[in-house]
Amino acid sequence: MDKKIEKIKGEIKCFHIKTYNDLETFRIKFISKKKGIITSLFKELKKISIYKKKIYGKIINELKKEVQNKINIFQSQNNNDKILKFDPTVPGKSIEIGGLHPLSIIKNRIIDIFMKIGFTYVYGPEIEDDWHNFTALNIPIYHPSRDMQDTFFLCKNPDILLRTHTSSVQIRYMKKHKPPFRVLSIGKVYRNETISSRSNFMFHQTEGFYIDKKVSFYDLKQTIDYLITSIFGKVKIRFRPSYFPFTEPSAEVDIYCNNGWIEIMGCGMIDPQVLKNVNINSETYSGFAFGLGIERLALIIYQIKDIRIYFNNDIRFLKQFKNEF
After folding, report:
1. For residue 287, which of 177, 188, 204 has the smallest C-alpha distance?
2. Whether residue 249 has a cis bond before it, omega within 30° of 0
3. Domain check: are 60 and 110 in the same one?
4. Coil/strand/helix, residue 172
5. N or C: which terminal CB in the chain sees fewer CB atoms within 10 Å?
6. Domain end residue (candidates: 34, 58, 84)
């Protein structure tokens, strides 16, 4: 056993490792599980006495460590060589850059448009109570939007619900601030509607309102014209009389597009009762409000036929917008 160990020590020292092939040959020769010389020595330990087994077991373990150290030294030196040979002028692997969702693109564009004319952008909660979502906005108890088929109520008495419009932000802001102010809010709203190519139970709504002394319908029309022109360029615009509980007079706004009129938003002068509900003197102040859906706007701008594709997480669809700003 002693002569065999001395011979193996000599072979380990004399073995020169220059390539990875040499390294593999060295490893197999000495420590591979099936043919390794040192592995076979461990097997021979079973045939000798317990006393000698402890002595030779320690010696054989030292041989194994010597082999492993030699392997580690080669690998360390070789890795350093690779680092030194790195060429910083060689182009790296390209990483695909993501982009904004089309709804985010339109949202950011609208915010930018209104920031230029002095509007402040604010947020509001998606879970609302009855007063902020309905009562303060002059929506009577018998109004259809209070029906359980239209609204997602989370609990009753008190009525807590998923907001049906961002007009609730208008109430919260007016309660805490004194006029004059110009405010814009964009966020998710929820309505219990059948999902189809043109509607969804959740969509993003833009709400804007302006309150000051002597605000008129003319100011509203000028603001709407500025918004539509900024997005679509010069297009035909028409205002149709309509009804909303929180505005009087009220109107629907259409644009002429693709050989036909398309409704894009609703608007009107804020009802004096709404101002009274938030302790704003309706004899001194007046204001207007408007609301439009981001999804519908994106359908027109990008010529999208099915609203459901916004939320399908289809990378092929989303890649089309990665170069948009």
Report:
1. 177
2. yes
3. no
4. helix
5. C
6. 84
